[in-house]
Structure formats: C-alpha cells, structure tokens
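Researcher: We're teaching a course module on how sequence relates to structure. For the next exercise, students receive a sequence and then see the predicted structure as tokens, so they can try to spot secondary structure elements on their own. Here is the exercise chain.
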Amino acid sequence: MINRLKTLYELQILDDQLDDLEELRGDLPHTVEDLEMKIKSLKEETEEKELKRKESLEKREDNEEGIEKLRANQKKFKTQLYQVRNNKEYDALTKEIDNSEELINKLEAENNALADTSKGLAIDIESVAPQLEELKAELKIKEAELKEISKANEKEEAKLKEKRKKIVDETKKPDYAAYMRIRKAKKGKAVVTIRRAACSGCHNIVPSQRQLEIRRNNKLFFCEYCGRILVSAEVAGLTD
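Model: And here is the predicted structure for the students to work with:
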C-alpha cells in the first residue's frame, strides 16, 4: 500500500511542477484564443456584409434592366397613342403607360434604398478593417510571447509529461480517478501531508488517532474537512 501512496504523492509533485510551468504562460493561452475568436468573428461578419453588398448590387442591376424594359415599353405605348382608333384603345394604352411609370418609380425607390444599404455596409466594412488589422498585430505579438515561453520550457515540460505518463500507468485506476476528481475540485492540490498536526491543504487539525492511522500507510485517508488525500511524512520522504 505504501507504494500506492508514494505513487500518488509523486504524481502530485510532478503535477505541481507542470502547473508552475503552465503558470509561467499566465493568461497568454487564453488571450491568444480570445484574439483568434474575435478575428474569426470579425472576418465572418465582414464576409456576411460583403455578401449582402454583392446581393444588393445584383438586385440593383436586375432592377435597372427592368426599368430599361419598362421605359422601352412606355416609349412604344406613347407612340401607339397617336395610332389609336377609339377611346377604349386610348384608355388601355394610357393605363399601360401609368402602370409602367408606377413600376419604374417603385424600382427606382427600391434601388435608392439598396444604394443606401450598400453604402452603409461599405462604411461598416471599412470601419472594421483597421480593427481587424490591430487585432491581427496584437495576436502576432502574443503568439510570439507564448512561443518564446513555451520554447524555453519545452524540454523540461516534455520530460515531466513523459515521467507523469509512466507514473499514471503505474497508478491504480480507482486511485487515479480519486486523485483527478480531488485535483479538479481543489485547484490542483489533491495529495497533501500533515504539518504541525494539521492538513497542509486546508490547515485544519487532524485528530491524533487519525494521524497514527495515516502513519501506518495501509490505506487511503482523506481529510475530513477538505477531502484531500493525506499521506504520512514517510511517504513524502520527510522527517516527522
């Protein structure tokens, strides 16, 4: 059993070292990720507005073609007015001319609205460009900083991770499951020793009888207050 306890304690020591290396990176990984998300969002927003501009332009071109056809028809109808033989034909042509004019006005009004929309989209796209470039520049700087820190500790981190993997392979699955559950709940610290008769994790006093039981190193003991795994000085390689 003592070997199981030593394995868990050694795992904790390794994770403490890996946590220290992670702490050196600070908020850089999150900052880089956040910047990447912002850039992606702005790019998608810009692409969407560019698509709307394109659709607006295509619609305006279609409307212009429609207006040209309607004006051509109007011209034809007006010419036919001089050739009518009765009031019925005259009224029919006049109605066609009026309908054409109404459609022309409608399409022109729509084109004016589309032009305003297109202009607004162009302004929005143009205003986003400097912001996007600024974010890209900031991302480049943060990525370089993160790369520099990671590179400086790359070998040490790889060595620790390799050692950790071997220890995990040696750890019994129930022990590892308990360790990881507590580690997650207690901000990384799952295995602790007793110092001055108290749990070194939460600093609450461990009863004398429980301390004696822990020193036997024959089972896993958990702090009654914080739930961390308690190990003896012998397991931790310390002196009482």
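Model: If you want an answer key for the exercise: The chain has two domains: 2-23+155-236, 25-152. The mean pLDDT is 92.
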